[in-house]
Specification:
Layout: H1 3-8, H2 15-36, H3 44-62, H4 67-100, H5 103-114, H6 117-135, H7 138-155, H8 160-177, H9 182-191, H10 195-223, H11 233-243, H12 252-262, H13 267-285, H14 287-294, H15 301-313, E1 316-317, H16 323-328, E2 330-331, H17 338-356, H18 359-368, H19 374-391, H20 395-412, H21 417-431, H22 439-448, H23 452-455, H24 460-475, H25 482-488
Antiparallel strand pairs: 1-2
Length: 489
């Protein structure tokens, strides 16, 4: 039987059949989290995702899909995430070598002297926004300045969830607005508009969203009471200074990474070079720390090799004698990322079955059938993007699939394509970081060391953006018609 003949024999899933795996996932995750609590991501959630993929596969078999076709969809899905997985592993190595080299301790050391609890959340958001606009990557922002800001915020006695929320908010502002960002280029490409029209049109919803975010963080900073938690700053500074050589020269390492990314060096080689530079700087500037990590008693080439290699792949900790600093001066290296890799692979297995068998498309079609106005169309697009971030577990699918689905509908409603591209980014890009098993949510939780649900309530920009784009649609604000677009050309 030819592949074409086999495809003709496949049944289209009913809405109930398409929803069955989703309902199973929701119920199973709810029960799992109630039983395991914060330990759910240690492995039980991964098993739930794979069991849900099994449920979806049973539905697919009933529809006529062979295991070969299902497996092909799974492999394709996992393959699409391989680049993210490699980056994630390399970020683990980068975090380890940047700790051992003194880069992260130096960021914390100088940051503690500049920032205070009142303005910290606002400053963290702005700094991450600037770095993310310059690099085009929320991932790189979180893995560089984000790690340092988490350390500074903890030392100042701030809630880690708040700090991570500020970091995520700023990082995703830049991820949306930077012409260097892959999602910023992907969204207009999917719907047929140009990059700078897309960015210009996004600014209408993005600037109010980040403004509201900054106001909220300022209010929190002015009203919160950190008690005596941030009063130990001098002791923390002395602990860091006593354990590391602290100098501005250490910032050459992150500066080199930012330079490479701005110069459009691909993320994987740029991050790998950053990790290697961290190892080199560790050997030059932090020999005592390298020796301590190696477990050797005296300096030797072998001791340096072992110490730096451990920073790349394994768990390390620099003991300073100060409990807060000791908690900050630890890294899991590449090994520490394996749990997140497991989560991503499990999520992509589930997403692959759902996407490859047409079940996600069937659910999306049901949503489109309910559209009767511009406001409801945009709201449906937002809901679909969020749905794909939850079910397909990948922000690219959350942009690509809804982008393909809604293009003709927007044209039929006389809406210019930039309305759709803006909505895709206002929802698909930013909400990816709010789903624990999404590649983005899993990544940020691991890199920042803060659970997704812990920072979710404080990721104000990510929460406000989809609501802002829906508000604009229902109010008819900056909704560009095809006629207006053609007239302006």
């Amino acid at each position: 039987m030819s592949e074409h003949e086999e495809s003709n024999k496949l049944l289209k899933p009913s809405l109930l059949e398409a929803l069955l795996p989703i309902l199973f996932l929701i119920v199973a995750l709810f029960l799992n989290v109630r039983i395991f609590g914060d330990a759910a991501l240690d492995g039980s959630n991964q098993i739930i995702l794979m069991l849900t993929a099994g449920v979806a596969s049973l539905v697919a078999v009933r529809l006529g899909y062979t295991w070969k076709k299902i497996r092909s969809s799974i492999v394709k899905s996992i393959s699409s995430a391989l680049s993210s997985i490699i980056i994630l592993l390399l970020i683990g190595s980068l975090a380890g070598t940047w700790l051992l080299s003194g880069v992260v301790p130096a960021m914390i050391y100088y940051g503690l002297q500049i920032l205070n609890p009142t303005i910290f959340l606002v400053a963290a958001t702005i700094v991450c926004a600037i770095v993310s606009v310059a690099t085009g990557s929320s991932w790189t922002t979180a893995a560089t300045v984000g790690i340092a800001l988490i350390g500074i915020g903890t030392a100042l006695g701030l809630n880690p969830g708040m700090v991570a929320g500020a970091i995520i908010s700023g990082a995703y502002f830049g991820d949306k607005m930077s012409p260097l960002s892959d999602t910023t280029n992907l969204a207009p490409a999917m719907v047929g508009t140009d990059l700078f029209t897309h960015i210009r049109y996004m600014a209408y919803t993005t600037i109010p969203s980040i403004t509201i975010t900054l106001i909220i963080f300022l209010i929190i900073g002015l009203t919160q009471d950190v008690g005596t938690a941030g009063s130990d700053t001098q002791a923390i500074l002395e602990a860091i200074d006593g354990s590391f050589y602290i100098s501005g020269v250490l910032f050459l390492v992150p500066a080199a990474v930012v330079f490479m990314i701005v110069r459009k060096v691909p993320a994987i080689p740029a991050i790998m070079m950053g990790a290697i530079l961290g190892g080199i700087f560790a050997a030059i500037f932090q020999p005592e720390a390298v020796l301590a990590v190696s477990g050797y008693e005296s300096f030797s080439a072998e001791a340096f090799y072992v110490g730096i290699m451990k920073a790349f792949y394994g768990e390390i900790q620099i003991i300073t004698g100060h409990p807060i600093v000791d908690d900050l001066m630890s890294s899991g290296g590449m090994y520490g990322m394996l749990g997140t890799v497991w989560l991503i692979v499990s999520a992509m297995i589930f997403g692959g079955v759902m996407e490859g068998t047409g079940m996600l498309k069937r659910i999306a079609e049901a949503i489109i059938s309910l559209v009767n106005s511009t406001g409801s169309l945009v709201a449906s697009t937002v809901g679909t993007c969020v749905f794909f971030n939850i079910t397909a577990s990948d922000q690219y699918l959350a942009i690509v699939v809804p982008g393909r689905m809604y293009t003709d509908t927007y044209k039929e409603k006389d809406l210019a394509p930039e309305n759709l591209s803006r909505t895709l980014e206002d929802s698909g890009t930013v909400t990816s970081a709010l789903v624990p098993w999404n590649t983005c949510g899993a990544y940020h939780a691991n890199v920042l060391g803060v659970a997704t649900f812990a920072y979710l309530p404080f990721a104000f920009f990510n929460l406000i953006s989809p609501l802002m784009t829906i508000f604009y649609a229902y109010m008819g604000i900056k909704i560009r018609s095809l006629k207006d677009a053609k007239h302006e050309e």
